[in-house]
């Protein structure tokens, strides 16, 4: 399950902001925001411990598909992933992005908000009860 208010209120608000920001100009494709958010949400590692039941899982709570995997599975090009994740981040849908090295390979770990509270006008609400106001300069 996911918080339906994200689909019903948050993404429509973000899309309206895009339209206002780019009124009369060529607007970047923004519909992939919801695809990317729900895709990453589906890949969150919910295992707190490894199979032995004792060793903490350092990927617990993170989503970590590679850019190549995201591209293959969603059709979102690699160059668009970073700008889309920044829009999700400024809106509070992604809470953190970490670069992690495993050997000689670099991976991103995305930590997502499960959006416990959404305002009537489509903003995420933080633990202090304040709306998370996005920086629309990141809507590129």
Quickly list its features.
140 residues; alpha+beta; 3-stranded antiparallel beta sheet; 14% strand
Order of helices and strands: HHEHHEE
- Widest sheet: strand order? 1-3-2
How would you classify the helix and strand content by structural class? alpha+beta
Mean pLDDT: 93
Q: For the terminal residues, how far apart are their CA atoms? A: 30 Å
The total count of helices amounts to 4
Radius of gyration (CA) equals 16 Å
How does this model look, in words?
The protein is α+β, with helices and mostly antiparallel strands and 140 residues long. Helix content is 36%, strand content 14%. It has a three-stranded antiparallel sheet. A hairpin with a 2-residue loop joins β2 and β3. The protein starts with a helix and ends in a 28-residue tail after the last strand. The mean pLDDT is 93.
